[in-house]
Structure formats: C-alpha cells, structure tokens
C-alpha cells in the first residue's frame, strides 16, 4: 500500500490502523508491513493521543 500516513491526525491513523487490523492483519507487525509505516511514528502518534495496542482484541484502544 502506498499512502502517506505521516501527516495524518491520530484519530485518522487510529481508524486506518484498526480497520487494517480488523480485516487484513493478524498483529502489529503485519500492520506496520501492510501500511508501510514506521512503527515508531505510529506508536508515538497514537500513544500521545491516548491509544495503545491491545493484543487480545488486536486493536488500538483508548488507554483512559
């Protein structure tokens, strides 16, 4: 997939990431590969917005 995801807001990244996790990716590693995005960028952006990865549900969830 060839998208420029670097400049998107955390909320948009969350939607894209969770959609891919739900339909295409079995885990975070597959997500990073599928989206061709730097794992550090995605994790940092989502963590700063209050979201973290939950391996049990294979989704990024609100940490609050």
Describe this protein's structure.
It is a single chain. The chain is α+β, with helices and mostly antiparallel strands and 64 residues long. It has helices at 10-23, 28-35, 39-48; strands spanning 51-54, 59-62. A hairpin with a 4-residue loop joins β1 and β2 (59-62). α1 (10-23) crosses α3 (39-48). The longest helix is centred in the first third of the chain and has 14 residues, at 10-23. The chain is globular.
Q: Gist?
A:
This protein is α+β, with helices and mostly antiparallel strands.
Number of strands: 2
- Structural class determined from secondary elements: alpha+beta
Largest sheet: number of strands, sense, barrel closure: 2 strands, antiparallel
Unreliable residue stretches: none
Shape: globular
Percent of residues in helices comes to 40-55%
Spatial strand arrangement across the major sheet: 1-2
The DSSP helix count reads 3
What percentage of amino acids are in beta strands? 5-15%
Distance between the termini: 31 Å
Radius of gyration: 11 Å
Helix-strand topology string: HHHEE
